[in-house]
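Notebook entry, structure prediction.
Reason for the run: the old model in the group folder had no record of what sequence produced it. Starting over properly, with the input documented here first.
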Amino acid sequence: MKISKIEVRAVAPPVDRFTWSDDLPDQYSTNTIVRIFTDEGIEGVAGVWNATSFDFERYTAESIRHLVPILIGKDPLLREEIWHAIRPRVFPLPPQSLAAIDIALWDLAGKAADLPLYKLLGGARERIPAYASTPLFEDVDSYLKNAEEFIAAGFKAIKFHTWCIPDLDLELARAVRKKYPGNQIAFMLDAENNYDHDGALKVAQELEAMDFTWFEAPLHDADLEGYIELSRRVSIPIIPSGNWFQDLQSFSSAIQAKAWGRARTDVAMMGGITQTNKAIALTEAAGMKCEIMSWGYSLVSAANFHLMLAHDNCSYFEQSVPCEPYEYGMKNFIRAQPDGYAYAPKGPGLGLEVDWEAMEAATILQFVAE
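New structure, fully documented this time:
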């Protein structure tokens, strides 16, 4: 089997936009999609998402333009060989460009084997608890109203993307814990790399007292010393955003430095399933949980989901809410069920079916290599 053609498109879905921090405008979320065709008629599909402030982006697709000629004529099942061939060597590339290719190759392999990816990867389980992962809402009352709706829908856990201002974020945390005392509902808070050291410690200590499940991205990922000190001073798990650890070497170094209470990574930022699977294995060897990101459009979310199901050290599937904008262009998708769990797709590969007519209607850049 040989790769005969590759189609790449940047898709700008006409859906509602959101933000995750007071200092960011509502974000434009681009879905960059890769289709890999073979001479045997088996096709692999992947998508990666990116968020930008003032317009949809095209640079992920344009970066892929310089990689796809390497793939034509190669055996798509030799994923390690291909990853080695396209890896950045002199200058960096957006990690999503590598990831889109790698995920499409894994989707193709699953279809060739007639297996869903989580089984091809080893298959540790077929369901996982889900948490509702919010955008920024207007005020505390809006958060409480939405939390009530999420809980009524079956969620047993909620992560709040907030203003990323310590005093405002604590006001929200106190309000939700007052309304939902005890441990029936798990809460997490994500500060999007925005606090200073004093603010991070203040919030961490209070979230710990309120029994929050974890505190995410209080500092920039690169501030390892800050994470080490913060983790030393509190018992609540401190986790990074994971967006800035884009290779196994830096990820491994942070694990060895004991910077985090739990690790975090994402298939798009680590360059695909091939590398992310190895990153998760590093956390398993260290005896750590790895709370995998799965925010974004359905295709990239599904890739992360299959990795979660292939291992047993991730606590939750991250469900982007509201769900509908992230399901644009799909005929099926992954959604938490009323029992609070997300269940494995039944089909081979990623297990999702694309509505190509809808994707075509929202395409802002497209090219083909053959």
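Summary: The radius of gyration is 20 Å.
The old model has been moved to the deprecated folder.
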